[in-house]
Amino acid sequence: MHIQELKLSDFRNYREGTISFGPGINILYGDNAQGKTNILEAIYLCATSKSHRTNLYKEMIRLGRDEAHVHLRISKQGGRYVDVIDLHLKSGNKKGIAVNKKPIRKMQELLGVAHVILFSPEDLGLIKHGPKERRRFMNVELSQVDPVYYFNLSQYHKVLKQRNNLLRSIQFDPGKADLLEPWDLQLAAYGRKIIQARMDFVSTLEPIFQEMHKGISGSGEAITMAYEKNVEPDLFEGRLLQARSKDVKTGSTTVGPHLDDLFFGLGGVDLRKYGSQGQQRTAALSLKLSEIEWVGSSIEDTPVLLLDDVLSELDRHRQLALMKVLNNIQTIITCTGVEDFMNQNITIEKMYCIEKGQIYEKNL
Question: Which one of 55, 156, 306, 359 is CB 3.0 to 4.6 Å from 118, fit for a cystine?
C-alpha cells in the first residue's frame, strides 16, 4: 500500500495543507518546530486512531480553533483498491472517523485500513526502557493487523479497571469479595487470548529479527527474543485466586498480561539491563525493521514506513543498514537537512520543505 494524499485543516500548526506522496521515498525537511512531525502524527492518527505524542485530541487542534480535520487517501495492492479516511477532532476531546464516507462505530473497523510503521528516536530506547514500552510495541503491531486482538485487549482493560475498582472497594467492605469471581472469569477469558496472540507474534517475529540483527551487527553471535509471560494461560484463574489477598491489599491486579515483557539476550547477557548503548540501539533498529517484513507477510501488502528524524540519531553503519530497506517500501522521512541523503544510494521521489506550517514542494 502507499499513501497518495494527506489534507490537513486546523491540525496542529496547519491552517490548511495538502501534500501528495510518491510510492517510494518522500522527504520532509526544515528546522525544528516547523510542523514536520505533525504530518507523520496525522498519518499515524488516521491509521490507528491514536497519536504517538498525546492522549488529548484537543492538543492536536490549531490554537484558537474548535475543530480539526484530517483526510488521508490510500492506494492498496498496486492501486487496485483505494481507501479514504476522514478524521474529525473536536475540542471536547471527541473524534469522528469515516472510511470511504461511512462513519465507523467501533475502532476495529478502522484498524487494518492503513498499515504504518512509525520509527522515532524514542524507539531506539525500546530495549532499555521499561516493560510498558515493550508491551506497547506488541499491542500496536498486533492491533494493526488483527482487529480481534484489539477487541480482546480493549475488553481486557475494561474488565481490569472494573476489577481494580472492586478490589479497592473491598478494602472498606470485605463482604464484596464474593463479587470478584465473575470479573476473574472474564479477565482470564480475554487474557488467555491476548497471551496466545503474543506468543504466536513473538515466535513468528524472532527469526526475522535475528536475521535482521545479524545483517546490521555483522556478528556471528545470535540474538534471542523471548516472550516473558506473567502467567501461563491455563493457570490464569488459579493464580488470580492465589493472589486475591495481595490484590485486595494493593488495590490492583498482580496477575495478567498487563504485566508481561519481552526479553532480549545476546551472548548470555540480558540486553535490557547489561547491554551497551550500541548493542541496545542495534537491537532496537533490528526490531523495528523486522516489523516491515512481519506486517507485510501478515497483510500480503507493504506497510508505509514513517521515519521521524531517526537518521540523525544513528551512526554511519546503522544509517546504511536502514537505507537498504527503503527502496522497497513507501517511506516518509522527516529531517532538518537533506545532506544525509545526497550521498546515499537511494532514489528520492518527492521532497518538501516545511516552514511554519506551510508546505513547499521542491524540485529534485
Answer: 306
